[in-house]
Each structure stands twice: as structure tokens, then as C-alpha cells.
Design a protein that fits this description.
Chain A is of the alpha+beta class. Helices cover 22% and strands 29% of the residues of chain A. Chain A has six domains: 181 residues, FAD/NAD(P)-binding domain (3-Layer(bba) Sandwich); 114 residues, FAD/NAD(P)-binding domain; 69 residues, BFD-like [2Fe-2S]-binding domain (Arc Repressor Mutant, subunit A, Orthogonal Bundle), CATH 1.10.10; 146 residues, Gyrase A, domain 2; 87 residues, Alpha-Beta Plaits, CATH 3.30.70; 95 residues, Elongation Factor Tu (Ef-tu), domain 3 (Beta Barrel). The longest helix of chain A has 15 residues. In chain B, the strands form two sheets. A four-stranded antiparallel sheet of chain B has the order 3-4-5-6. The chains are: A alpha+beta, B alpha+beta. The structure holds zinc ion.
Chain lengths: 973, 97
């Protein structure tokens, strides 16, 4: 407990006090606080546990660079199970909890693992849990890993998705970005400036820096004011550019907040003509034993907590640097009234101006030394300091240590486009090499620079990006006089933390190097270095520099790992936006939807809103389905088949064209006749079945299954355009032009007659698999005599707008006959009694026509068709393929998914010979029937087999598909 | 994000509006019955997997529905050329049967 609120200072609104709870305890903060700064103000210093060793973790950074402080946060609008405390703005009533570490981060049972830390080295899991099977260990290990627990009762935060474009995108609203935007708006460009902060300005607002001897914050505020008055610039704050893609497309995540919290997440897809990359840099830590203790933090973070939030993370600060920039934290702390014990500088001779500045505020500077270790158990209480050249160790008491190891430019977005950052030994940083077309870098992303240089570089970038002369300007090569110091010279490498979140230490990197993982990509995967939620912002460069040292290579030769989007974590809910639930896709309604609704339909969304069954007389689903099936078998049933695919193929070559798609011969199909067939992909696998109608020699109607209507239309059109553009044929999907009602049952002809067709419907002229068009029910209609149920069946098609009238009339006709509406479930069971297959259910990604008994049809067809040649390949001809057969079960219940056992004695787990693809109870037959794909099934008719299903074994008999009415007497009636 | 100007409706189409159709100019052996197993399975499965400029088929799915051919660099996604199929087939119509 060493943090506190400073009496004055910071950009928080001290007139607006906010109450929040941390692990149930009420605390207060101010508007403008982040959760991190508010917790520091309340003296909280341990908020998380590290991933592997469960070591205590505090606030190491003050923004997106913070590797450790992930908390569970609930505001008025939503809940995040694990979110970076330094990136969440405090709101009234916020509920903040430690995310992992049970029962609390301050006292963690997992800490018992620590004594075993020596054994959990890099690659530990790979080496230890491989025998006999990783799956045995997985559940136990899973319980000890991960971040946070999802709250299934929390409703997702509202989210939406928008598209946008702009002339010049300025990424980063710090000094460089603002300067660039300023120049661009004067020149009249369409500018969009994006910053992840709540307001523009960046570090200059709180770092206490001066610019050309003036207060930097004043300069920033003047720029922000100018920008807000311009009408050719849009400002997006609280927005992160999360990814950069080819064509200068970007993804952005905007958090829109009010007093209750983040009320909307907006995922933006943006196209920019030109780009100014002004993302700045983050500070790098220094690596020494105990550097992960709470109380150790980046020098820039210390500055920010003091300057932006008016909180003191410590009461006595020591500073450890290898460059000039870190001295700022000593000055900021001194001004805030925090004791500064010492600045420990690895350099022998820092600039005299720095020494004078420190002497003016009476801060001792110890040069040519390094921190040998941070001392403390749960919080730093001193540091041991030792001359770099070796010698006696001195202990310096402090309760806070600010570290500054140089800067890492945030080049991620350029790297998403394939840019490889290059190592600049002068400034000891990875800087962008060739930026993508239309991009110019500005500010610290191009390498460390001073604030006034950043402003000039922003202006120059703006001129360059819009095509003005290259105003090449001199930039100091090493403005902060860095002297690289990648790790402590001696000490226990197992205590030197490189990745604070994943507990990757120098010892792990040494082990990886010893075992030959000398590529950075291998190092990353073997040690998990940089794989935490911070994506290694503070750890990657140190890690690869240490690897370079261990393997005797130059840093430039080691290189960086590949950067991939997203730059920060993006909630899946933000990407989904409002395309969830009813907005997931447009609902499609049947033309007679209301009529079904009034009849008690229980709808199911299967691409269309279709009646699954009809609720009548208080029946439940099973009872209703049985009654519906009985109506079809005994009298008549009405089924709305409007979604059934209807594709008109017209033109002189229509017949030849359709013939190329079907296994059956279409060349011999006479006008007014219909043929059932299946359609294959070129690999010979069935992808649709349906009926083809020959209206006349120039017009065919292809009737794919309902779910495939769009796919088949696109398939025909693709072949027409790309392979056979010379064929004189047009393809028109007309599925939704027609309402289609099927009339099925022994009384179907009687019902059809009542619709007053102007053509003969007598059984001998209008026979099974025939087609007529003419006046029916007072409309110009099309009638097909086909059957899916095994009964006498007609499908009456009228223009969609008359669907309701037709169905109402049919209901009036059929009611006195004992007819009734039939839903999808009864319809599918009727077809199963008959043994008709359902593509996708009774076939899989290997099933060919030879496997469903259509080999003869395929062999008889003289012409070519898509997929034909593949049926002659050896794999299609093999005997042990799964073939579609019927099943009957006289004792017991047959269910979908049961596995067919190889033989009588087989006991699971064991290989199986296939599976049950469809199953239902047949009221007509009085036992269970089904379909199954069984190896060599066609040659096993009459055999009794064993089926293993959810722990039970039952006997079934293999038969030809469709034991109901095997002679088709009802169908042909 | 891949953006292609459709050569038929002349609109910029984003990849979400387009359908990818794989490598272009894969020749279907004719007659298939005359092709050896090897020729046929090469046609089914073997693709050039080019690193560099790749000719491929795209369809203006959410727009005019027309297929066209595109020369795309598989690393940079740069679209160098867009070709209408009807240009390719302009003078070689194959009649019906
Ligand atoms: Zn188009």
C-alpha cells in the first residue's frame, strides 16, 4: 500500500467524484481516472497474478503497454471478463474485480506453485504432458490457466459496424499527428485523425515536456482547438486502429461512452487514400533480477500517473535508466512532492545538463552502475546497485522503481502490411523500413526524437504525403543518448523477467537457445514470449536482443517476429456488430405466412420461416406430427413447399445444358415430363438432388432442394459463363416468384379437381412424373405430379402473390375430407417411411451416385455430365465404400447418429462400419425405420447388424430404402 | 481487403461482395472419358499455387453476378488486370449439341 492521490495536479476532474468497488470494497476516484489510476489512488498495488508462477502483479505501464493488470470490469452497459485496467475509464458504480488468482490476487493459492518454478521451464508442457496422452492432463491444466471467467448472464455490450473512407488518415493524435493534421487542414484535405486516448494530445499533455522553451501542453491545446473549428477534419478519439490491410483498408475499434460506461462498440472498416503513421513509441523496461515486483514500473508510466491522473504510485522513487528520457520521471516525481532517492544510470558520463538539472532538485545521480536486483516480497522496498565493471553492491531504499531502457516505435500497423522493421543501432530501436504506398511516418514511430522534432516531422510528413517536395529534415541520430543495456550483467537469470504476463525469464531464453530455438519465431512459440494480451509490446525487443547476445549474433540479424492484426484485443461482439439474433440474416417468409400462423404453425428458421408442425387441439409436437402423418396416409395433407428451388433454363441449348449437370439422361425427357436425378461436383460427389421438368424443348425447370436453391442457380450460371459461354441458354432463378402447395394423399386428385383446372387430371393422362400448366384456382398456374411422401401427390404453383388465396381455398376444400396442414417434420418422416434420401443428411462429402444405387442410371447415360469421369476412378469403384441402405428396428428405438458395429463381438471403442443418417418411428408400419451409410451395405440386404448408440446396443435389419408401399401402388394411384 | 472494379457493372466491389472461384484457365479435359486417370485427377486437384501474379476467377456476387478473370499478386493482393470472359470468348462460340 504505497499509492495515494496527490493534493493537486493531473487532468482529472476533481469536482466529479466517482464511487466504484474493487473486489466488493467501495472506493472513490475522479472523472478522468482510469481504473488503474483510481486503484493506485486507493493504495491498491497488487491486482493480478502472472500466468505461470502466479507471481503478484501490479501496474507496470499506464496504457496499452501494460502487460499485467487485467481485471474483470462491469459497467452499466456490459461486462468484460479480462480487460486492461489502464485502458478503462472509471465510471460511477463500476464493479471491478481481480480477474484471476483465487480467492484474491493479494492472497493467491496458486502461489504454492512458486517453489516449483524451477521445474516449469520453457517447453515444460510440451515435454512433460506428452505421455501417454495430452488429453489426460488437459482438463486439469485448463483449470489453472486462462484469464477471467465469462459471465453467461451478462448481455453483450451493444455493437455496430460501419464503413467509412477518408482522404488522409492520421493515426495518432500526439504532437506529430496534431502537427500533421494542422498542416493538412490548411491545405484543404479531407482528414481523419484517430487516437486511442479520450482526447487528442498524447504524452505531451502530461509529460511536463517543453517545446522550443514553451509549455508543450499549451501548444497541444491550441492545435486541438484549431482542429475542432475546421470542417475538413473528423476526429475519432477512444478509437484504436486495430489492423491495416492491402488497399489502405483499416479496421478500427471505437468505444463510445457516457457516464454509465461504454455504451456502444463500433467496428469501423475504413478506406484511406493516404496515411500518416504517427503512432509514437512505448518505453522498454530494463531486465534484472526481481524486475517484476509490484512497485517497479516504466518511467513513462510513472510520469503519466503523476501528470495525467494526479496520483503518486510511490512515496520514494528510485530511477534506473540507460538514456536521458527516464530522467523525466525524477523531475515529475520531485515536482509532485515525491522523494527521489537516486537516479541510477548505466552510462559513465550522462550529459552535464542532466546532472545540473538533478543537482538543482537535489537528486543524487549514480553513474556507471546497474540495478543488480530489486528487493522485496510483495512490493519493492529497495534496490541493490552495483558498478557495471563489478565491485561492491550498495542498497538504495525506495518503494517505487522507474525503469527506462529506451523506446520501441509502434510500427505494428505498417508491419501488418508486410513491412519489416530494421534495427537502428544508433538509437537502439527497431524503426520502419519501407512504408506501404501512400504512407508517411511522423514522430517517434520513425525512431526516438524530441518533442519539437516530432512537431516538425508531423508537418513535413503532411507535406510529403500530399505530394509536396521532400522537405528532408535533420533528425538527431540518438536524441536521448541511449547506451544499450539488455540485461543485468550477473545474477540469477530465472529471476530476470522479460515477459511479465507469461513469466518468460532470461533463463527460459537461455534454455531455448541451448536447445536450438534460435529463430525468433521459434523462441516465441517455445517460450510463449510476447504471446500475452499485450502482444509483447514491452518484451519482444528485449527478448530478441537477449537471444542475439546468447547466440553471438547482431540484433539486426535476429529480426522481429511477424506482426499480425489485431493490434489490441477486439471483442468478438464488436466484429459481429448487430448481425446477431434476428439481424443475423434477413428472414424469409412464405407467401402464405399469415395463413400458417393462423393455423397454429410453430415456425422454424431453416433459411425460410417454415412451419415445423401445427399446434391444434392442445396437442404436443409428437402427437401433432403423428396426426399430420395420418392425415396424409388416410385422406389428404397440405404442405407449403414454396422454398423448393425453381430455376428456369431457357433457350435452344437448354436441354443440352441441363443434361450436362445431371446423372440421369435429360436428352430423352419429353415435354410435359419430369425426371428425378442427382447433381455432382466434378469429383463425383453428390451435392444436390431434385427434379427436372421439361416444359418444352426450349424451357426446362430445374428443381433443386430448398436449401440448395441459390447454390444450384449460382452453379449453373458459373458453368454457363466460364466454361460454356457459347451455349444459347439463359438461367433464371424464380424460386420466390411462385407459391407452391403440395397436396398429398389418397384424396389428392379429388382436391385438385375442386380447384377447377382447365386441363385433364385423370390418372391415365396426368400420370406420375408429369407436368401441366394452365388455369387453376382461377390463376395461371403450374402443376407437377411428383411425390416426396409415397402418396398420390400434386404440387400446385401459382404466382407468389396469390399464395394466400390458394392456401385458404385448399383449406376450405380439404377440411370436410379430414385433411390438414402438414409441417416439415411430418413431411420428412413421411419421406423416410418411403426411403427417399435427403441430400446432406443421408449423403456426406464422399457419397457418389454409385453409393445410393444410381450406378445403373449413370452407366446408361450416353453423354457426359459433371463428375462422370470421377465415377470411373478406383476410389469410387472400391467395394468397401459406405452405401446407403434402409434399416428396420422391430424392438427398440432407432436414432440418428448410431454407429454400425463391424460384427457381433465388437465392443466400443472400436472402428465402425458406418452410421445411421435418418431415423423415425413409422406409424404406418408400427416400428422404427431409418437410412444408414454402411460399408458394402448394398451387398448386405437382410443382414442383422448391431448399432451402438449412446451407450446402448440394438439390433437392426438391413433392407432396401423405403419399406413402406414397396410396389408404389399408392404413388401411382 | 481486396477491392476489384467489376468489368461488367463498373463498380468497386469489396471482397465481401465478391465470390472467389479459384485458379482461372484450368482446362477441363474433353472428352473426359478420353482422359487418363492422371490427367483427370490433375484437373480436379492440382493447382499452381503461385507466389506472385496469379490468374483467377472472381464473381460480382452481390452486384451483377458476372464472372471475370483477374490477375492478382498473391503476396501484395495487387490487382494488375481484370478481364471480361466475353472478351475472351468473343469469336469462339461453341454451338449447342
Ligand atoms: Zn458487377
Amino acid at each position: 500500500m504505497s499509492g495515494r492521490r496527490l493534493q493537486t495536479g493531473g487532468l482529472v476532474d476533481r469536482t466529479k467524484e466517482l464511487r466504484f468497488t474493487f473486489n466488493g470494497k467501495t472506493m472513490t476516484g475522479y472523472a478522468g481516472d482510469t481504473v488503474a489510476s483510481a486503484l493506485i489512488a486507493n493504495g491498491v498495488d497488487i491486482v493480478a497474478r502472472s500466468f505461470k508462477y502466479h507471481r503478484p502483479r501490479g501496474f507496470f505501464g499506464a496504457g496499452c503497454e501494460d502487460p499485467s493488470a487485467m481485471l474483470a470490469v462491469r459497467d452499466q452497459y456490459g461486462f468484460d471478463a479480462a480487460i486492461r485496467a489502464a485502458e478503462v475509464y472509471l465510471t460511477e458504480g463500476m464493479d471491478v474485480r481481480t480477474s484471476r488468482g483465487f480467492p484474491s490476487a493479494a492472497f493467491d493459492l496458486g502461489v504454492l506453485i512458486q517453489p516449483f518454478a524451477r521445474f516449469i521451464k520453457a517447453g515444460f508442457y510440451y515435454k512433460t504432458f506428452k505421455w501417454p496422452n495430452w488429453r489426460w492432463f488437459e482438463p486439469v491444466i485448463k483449470r489453472t490457466t486462462g484469464f477471467g471467467d465469462i459471465d453467461p448472464t451478462a448481455s453483450p455490450r451493444p455493437a455496430e459496424r460501419v464503413h467509412a473512407r477518408c482522404g488522409v488518415l492520421v493515426i495518432g493524435g500526439g504532437a506529430a499527428g496534431l502537427s500533421a493534421a494542422d498542416t493538412l487542414i490548411d491545405a484543404g484535405h479531407d482528414v481523419l485523425i484517430v487516437d486511442e486516448g479520450r482526447s487528442l494530445g498524447g504524452a505531451a499533455l502530461w509529460s511536463g515536456q517543453r517545446m522550443d522553451d514553451k509549455d508543450a501542453a499549451a501548444w497541444i491545446n491550441a492545435r486541438v482547438e484549431r482542429i475542432s473549428g475546421a470542417d475538413n477534419i473528423r476526429v475519432l478519439t477512444d478509437t484504436v486502429v486495430t489492423g491495416a490491410y492491402e488497399g489502405n483498408f483499416f479496421t478500427l475499434l471505437q468505444s463510445i461512452s457516457d457516464d454509465g460506461g461504454v455504451r456502444l462498440l463500433r467496428h469501423i472498416k475504413l478506406k484511406a487514400e493516404k496515411v500518416i503513421l504517427a503512432t509514437g513509441a512505448v518505453e522498454r523496461p530494463l531486465v534484472f533480477p526481481g524486475n517484476d515486483l509490484p512497485g517497479v514500473m516504466l518511467a513513462s508510466a510513472a510520469c503519466r500517473y503523476i501528470g495525467q491522473f494526479g496520483v503518486a504510485p510511490m512515496s520514494c522513487l528510485a530511477v534506473f535508466v540507460n538514456n536521458d528520457a527516464g530522467y523525466r520521471s525524477a523531475i515529475a516525481a520531485h515536482r509532485a512532492g515525491i522523494d527521489v532517492a537516486a537516479v541510477i544510470d548505466v552510462r559513465d558520463t550522462p550529459a552535464q545538463t542532466l546532472l545540473d538539472e538533478m543537482s538543482a532538485i537535489r537528486v543524487p545521480v549514480m553513474t556507471g552502475l546497474e540495478v543488480a536486483a530489486a528487493i522485496g516480497e510483495r512490493h519493492v522496498r529497495a534496490v541493490d546497485v552495483r558498478p557495471l565493471a563489478g565491485g561492491r553492491t550498495v542498497r538504495v531504499a525506495c518503494d517505487g522503481l522507474a525503469v527506462s531502457g529506451g523506446e520501441t516505435p509502434l510500427v505494428h500497423l505498417a508491419a501488418h502490411r508486410g513491412m519489416k522493421p530494421v534495427y537502428d543501432p544508433e538509437s537502439a530501436s527497431f524503426v520502419p523500413s519501407n512504408l506501404p504506398d501512400g504512407w508517411v511516418g511522423a514522430g517517434a514511430v520513425t525512431g526516438p526524437l524530441k518533442l519539437d522534432e516530432a512537431v516538425r516531422s508531423g508537418d513535413a510528413a503532411a507535406r510529403l504525403v500530399v505530394g509536396e517536395e521532400d522537405p528532408t529534415q535533420a533528425k538527431s541520430a540518438n536524441p536521448y543518448n541511449i547506451q544499450p543495456h539488455w540485461r543485468a550483467t550477473t545474477g540469477d537469470p530465472a529471476k530476470m523477467f522479460v515477459d511479465h504476463q507469461h513469466d518468460v525469464t532470461v533463463a527460459d531464453i537461455e534454455l531455448a537457445a541451448r536447445e536450438g530455438y534460435v529463430s525468433v519465431e521459434h523462441l516465441k512459440r517455445y517460450t510463449t514470449l510476447g504471446m500475452g494480451t499485450d502482444q509483447g509490446r514491452t518484451s519482444n525487443i528485449n527478448g530478441l536482443a537477449i537471444l542475439a547476445g546468447l547466440t553471438g549474433r547482431e540484433i539486426v540479424d535476429v529480426g522481429t517476429t511477424t506482426f499480425r492484426p489485431p493490434y489490441t484485443a477486439v471483442p468478438m461482439a464488436a466484429i459481429a456488430g448487430n448481425r446477431v439474433k434476428t439481424f443475423y440474416r434477413a428472414a424469409r417468409y412464405l407467401p402464405a405466412h399469415e395463413t400458417h400462423e393462423n393455423a397454429g404453425a410453430v415456425f422454424e428458421d431453416v433459411g425460410w420461416m417454415r412451419p415445423d408442425w401445427y399446434r391444434m387441439n392442445g396437442e404436443d409436437r409428437e402427437a401433432a406430427v403423428a396426426t399430420e402423418m395420418a392425415a396424409v396416409r388416410s385422406a389428404v395433407g397440405l404442405f407449403d413447399g414454396s422454398p423448393l428451388g425453381k430455376i428456369e433454363v431457357a433457350g435452344p441449348d437448354a436441354r443440352a445444358f441441363v443434361d450436362r449437370f445431371y446423372v440421369s439422361n435429360i436428352m430423352t425427357l419429353k415435354p410435359g415430363r419430369i425426371r428425378y436425378s442427382v447433381m455432382l461436383h466434378e469429383d463425383g460427389v453428390i451435392f444436390d438432388d431434385g427434379v427436372v421438368t421439361c416444359v418444352d424443348d426450349n424451357l426446362f425447370i430445374v428443381g433443386p432442394s430448398s436449401g440448395n436453391a441459390d447454390t444450384v442457380a449460382a452453379w449453373l450460371e458459373r458453368w454457363r459463363q466460364t466454361e460454356w459461354p457459347g451455349m444459347r441458354v439463359a438461367v433464371a432463378p424464380v424460386t420466390s416468384n411462385w407459391a407452391s402447395i403440395a397436396i398429398a394423399g389418397p384424396k389428392a386428385r379429388e382436391v385438385l379437381a375442386a380447384l377447377d383446372p382447365d386441363f385433364s387430371i385423370s390418372g391415365d393422362v396426368f400420370s406420375h412424373m408429369s407436368y401441366r400448366q394452365g388455369r387453376i384456382a382461377g390463376f395461371d398456374g403450374r402443376v407437377s405430379r411428383v411425390s416426396f411422401t409415397g402418396e398420390l401427390q400434386y404440387e400446385v404453383n401459382v404466382p407468389a402473390r396469390h399464395g394466400k388465396t390458394l392456401l385458404t381455398r385448399l383449406l376450405n376444400i380439404t377440411q370436410p375430407m379430414g385433411g390438414r396442414l402438414v409441417g416439415l417434420e411430418a413431411w420428412l418422416r413421411l419421406r423416410l417411411e418411403k426411403g427417399y434420401l435427403h441430400v446432406g443428411a443421408d449423403t456426406n462429402g464422399r457419397t457418389t451416385p454409385l453409393d445410393i444405387g444410381m450406378g445403373g442410371v449413370a452407366a446408361k447415360k450416353p453423354g457426359d455430365f459433371i463428375g462422370k469421369r470421377s465415377l470411373a476412378l478406383s476410389y469410387a469403384q472400391s467395394e468397401n465404400r459406405e452405401q446407403l441402405v434402409g434399416l428396420t428396428v422391430k424392438a427398440g428405438a432407432l436414432r440418428v447418429g448410431g454407429r454400425i458395429l463391424m460384427d457381433e463381438v465388437a465392443t466400443p471403442p472400436c472402428p465402425t462400419a458406418g452410421y445411421v443418417t435418418s431415423a423415425c418411428y413409422s406409424p404406418s408400419l408400427g416400428y422404427y425405420v431409418g437410412l444408414a451409410l454402411i460399408e458394402n451395405g448394398a451387398n448386405r440386404m437382410g443382414e442383422t447388424i448391431k448399432i451402438f448408440d449412446r451407450g446402448q446396443v440394438l439390433a437392426a435389419e438391413i433392407c432396401r430404402p423405403g419399406p413402406f408401399d414397396p410396389d408404389n401402388e399408392r404413388l401411382m394411384a | 481487403m481486396i477491392v476489384i472494379k467489376c468489368p461488367s457493372c463498373h463498380e468497386d466491389r469489396h471482397e465481401e461482395e465478391l465470390e472467389y472461384g479459384g485458379e482461372a484457365d484450368v482446362v477441363r479435359p474433353t472428352p473426359p472419358d478420353g482422359a487418363s486417370d492422371e490427367t483427370w485427377t490433375d484437373y480436379l486437384f492440382m493447382r499452381t499455387n503461385t507466389k506472385g501474379v496469379h490468374y483467377e476467377q472472381w464473381c460480382c456476387r452481390a452486384g451483377c453476378g458476372q464472372w471475370f478473370k483477374v490477375a492478382r499478386h498473391t503476396v501484395s493482393h495487387e490487382v494488375a488486370e481484370v478481364i471480361r470472359y466475353e472478351d475472351r470468348f468473343a469469336y469462339q462460340k461453341e454451338g449447342g449439341e
